[in-house]
Amino acid sequence: MSDALKHECGIALLRLLKPLEYYKEKYGSAFYGIQKMYLLMEKQHNRGQDGAGFASIKMDVKPGQRYISRVRSNQQQPIQDIFAQINERVNEEMALHPEYNDNVALQKEHIPYIGELFLGHVRYGTFGKNSIESVHPFLRQNNWMHRNLIVAGNFNMTNVQQLFQNLVELGQHPKELADTVTIMENIGHFLDDEVTDLYQDCKNEGYSKEEASPVIAERLNIPRILKRASKQWDGGYAMAGLLGHGDAFVFRDPAGIRPAFYYQDDEIAVVASERPVIQTVFNVPFEEVKELEPGHAIIIKKSGNVAIEQIKEALPKKACSFERIYFSRGSDAEIYRERKELGRLILPDVLKAINSDTDNTVFSYIPNTAETSFYGMVEAANDFLNQRKNDYIIANRNTLTAETLHELLEVKIRTEKVAIKDAKLRTFITEDSSRDDLVAHVYDVTYGVIKPEDNLVIIDDSIVRGTTLKKSIIRMMDRLNPKRIVIVSSAPQIRYPDCYGIDMAKLEGLVAFRAAQELLEERGLHHIIEETYKKCKAQENLPDTDVINYVKEFYAPFTDEEISDKIAEMLTEDDIKAEVKIIFQSVDNLHKACPKNLGDWYFTGDYPTPGGNRVVNRAFINFYEGNDARAY
Fold first, then answer.
1. Of 384, 458, 467, 368, residue with least CA distance to 416
2. Reported confidence tier of residue 308, pLDDT bands at 50, 70, 90
3. Sheet holding 361-365, edge to edge
4. From its phi and psi, is residue 463 left (phi > 0), alpha (psi between -120 and 50) or beta?
């Protein structure tokens, strides 16, 4: 993706279902869980590079022994930093105590991080600063083992301020207004309630305080805790939690906005944000890795019992389509096919832009994630060319010579790797003029493959802000002297802010929004801006369920093509010699290509939760009033 876009997070939860001695005997190490966690997190590093965290729990330890370990990092390579710290500590203990080498019981008793239950998280920060305090997992500590709560999630709530206020009304004093802290304390409150009720039951049944503790752990009803805690949650989430005694859960939002996949056999139960991660790390086939259904939680009890429980009634499934377009690793079999289909489906619009002149067209892509959709576009272009050849042969079958046939078969779709990203380039100079010159060199080009009569078609995953296109890509492509540059987005126009975990919180940052604004001004339709603001403002104090997304009226006067043409005009500076055309995928084709991920609110404004409409209206109010703030 040419525009830097922070997004999402990744989670990994692993429960070892056998005693640690089993893994030592079968796999040669009682550190099997730590090794697998490293792989689960490293293979999700695409989901977050601002920070990473790891937590582990040892089960059935004696009082006085440490049973929870946690390490977090916000260093430049946080996953490597975490496991370097873990390895250093483990190696230090093993060097000091050679007697631990073949004694799993001593390893578990004395070496941190070894255990039976693990939680890992990789993070892009979309709420708050990237301080170490913002890095998951978060820990809520207590001397009662089952009141200890460790939480990490891939989530964003639209109503975190309301949830925060609910905690205050319960008599709590949360230490900060951050979504993870708020959600953890929210779950923690109902966990405390559950423990208190169970303790009273145990007391009535004649158990002593010491005897009650394991009984409470056994009877803890995780689904009930999650149902009570999540009553007012509005957002997209895959929420993972560990309890100090050994229970664990991962809970997915009712619209299925955020992803979660799981696998279980007699040795392990594992949950991750992406299917191929589990496939690769545990060498299991595609069909054995299951998707956690919306509104459901996977509950792993300390006993090893694994159950899928419905927590909230499912809404219409609106899984995030950006997962398929860009975020998730393309090694997933379904995602790979879908990305190719996005490229295939957009070819008719490309042919229209180049007047079907494939002979004088070079096809290329913006590295690296657009490569798969490029393959699909080129396959469709080859189908088009083969049909042209077929039609010509049939029409001229009586006069066709061997020489003409040879010439015809020699015609190929021309593909080149034109754009090369300079991953090491950094912008150090702060003056705008100097910075623009440096940004122009973020991408380099391959010279000598474009002729002056050529069209240059180059596909990207999506176009968000357009800054890199304007300052770098179009400028560098123009140096190759093509007749026409056609920028193709495999995603539709991004028109609305996201509020479920992608860093697109402000309308004015979206190039499609700015294009519509310019069109309104040019055509004397400024009153639509005023009217949209008044309608949004009038809804400020309505319940979320009554709020309507009036920002749609901002785009209503224009066709998709009019906005696309205006974007092309805005991103083409005066000294660009080539004609520039920008093509976006249609929403209908997006749904055809990605039928399981129909979440499209950033393209259509159709938000899957009531809080989304409040957020988009607030974003418009902020834009109109010049308030440089997030809408949630």
1. 458
2. very high
3. 414-415, 361-365, 455-460, 484-489, 579-584
4. beta
H-helix segments, 272-354: 275-282, 322, 333-353
161 vs 152: CA distance, rounded Å = 19
Which run of H or E residues covers position 105? Answer: helix 104-110
Helix 32-42 × helix 275-282 angle, to 10°: 140
Strand ranges in 235-350 using DSSP code E only, listed in sequence order? 235-243, 248-252, 261-264, 268-272, 290-291, 296-300, 306-310
Terminal Cα-to-Cα distance of the chain (whole angstroms): 25
Amino acid, single-letter form, for residue 541: N
d(CA 542, CA 547): 6
Per-residue tokens: 546 = 């009554």
Residue 627: per-residue pLDDT:
93
Let me know: does 550 contact 457? Beta carbons within 8 Å: no
For 541-559, the pLDDT digits (tens) are 999 999 999 999 999 999 9
194's tokens: 């559950």
Which amino acid belongs to residue 589? N
If we measure between CA atoms, which residue out of 427, 411, 415 comes closest to residue 471? 427
Strands 261-264 and 248-252: unpaired
In tens, the pLDDT along 362-405 reads: 999 998 779 999 999 999 999 999 999 999 999 999 999 999 99
- Cα separation, 36 vs 41, whole angstroms: 9
Model confidence at 435, pLDDT cuts 50, 70, 90, reads: very low
- Which residue is associated with the tokens 């809520």? 140
Distance CA 311, CA 223 (A): 6
CA dihedral 377, 379, 384, 390 (to 10 degrees): 170
Rounded CA gap, 330 and 333, in Å?
A: 8
> What b/e readout covers 52-78, taking b as 16+ CB neighbours within 10 angstroms?
bbbbbbbbeeeeeeebbbbbbbbeeeb
Which residues fall within 8 angstroms of residue 280, CB to CB, at 6 or more apart? 39, 43, 331
User: In what side-by-side order are the strands of the sheet with 248-252?
Assistant: 138-140, 149-157, 235-243, 248-252, 296-300, 306-310
Report DSSP letters for 508-522, one per residue.
Answer: GG-HHHHHHHHHHHH
Number of residues in the chain: 632
Residue 134 clears pLDDT 90, i.e. is over it: no
Q: Give one word for 466, left, alpha or beta, with left for phi > 0 and alpha for psi -120 to 50.
A: left
CA distances to 36, 53, 128, 138 from 178, in Å: 30, 17, 7, 12
Angle of helix 20-27 versus helix 32-42 axis, rounded to 10: 80
